[in-house]
Protein: Alpha/beta hydrolase family protein
Organism: Svornostia abyssi
Amino acid sequence: MLLVHGAFTETTTWSGVVGDLRPRGIDAVAVPTPLTGLRADAAYVASRASGVDGPVLLAGEGYGGAVISAAALAAPNVVGLVFVAAFVPDEGESCVELARAVGGHPGHRGPAPRRGARR
């Protein structure tokens, strides 16, 4: 199982999960996503998945959901995806577009002011 962190976190996000899964015999590894863009990040995760001998389950948190969605298309041994509070964009859709659709985006601090209102 490969665990992919979000844009504002790191592999230690998954430390508790890895600690819970390994004693149960599940080989779980938190992948240090390079955060260089969705295509590059997905290619990196796909290469890590393809390097595993056998079936792979990918889990993604936040932005990691978009990464695993794209990576799964390039790694034939991926057998499932787990999304944890994650983005699941349609083809050609960005995480920022999804966030804006629900009233926010990374770095946005609260709702936009009404026209003419002062912050």
User: Anything to note?
Assistant: The helical segments are 15-21, 38-50, 64-74, 95-101. Confidence is low (pLDDT under 50) at residues 108-115. The longest helix spans residues 38-50. The two ends are 46 Å apart (CA to CA).
